[in-house]
## 1
Amino acid sequence: MKDLIQKINAKFETFKTESQSLVDKGVKAAGPRARKATLENETIHLTREIDDINQDTVGFS
């Protein structure tokens, strides 16, 4: 769980940094980088949900 939280926090920090670059400095390339960080965070979240489902169904086979 600690590893998961560290991954999510790292991606959120990337998003925060890149979105600030886009808004404050007008760095247009930062937009896609910020979006990529959110998509990667979503993937981490979905992977965790799938793992939880798999763990719950192990006893039912």
## 2
Amino acid sequence: MKCIVTYSSKYGSTEKYAKWIGEALSCEVRDIKSLRPDMLQGYDNLSDEDKLMLDTYGKKIDFSDQRTIKELVDYVMTL
């Protein structure tokens, strides 16, 4: 699976969390503002079901503790 974690961060917290997730998944991490649509070619797409599942996991994460991303990362690794 070729993946990318995208984020938008005003104060830097979301960037930090995105980097944690990107590191755990061994994938690229990019600020959404620096991307063009053509730069996303070649990455795997998520189904609507996968997006819903990730949204559900995202609501269970305590973003002040890096260890809480494990469930999310484990799910993404099964895709």
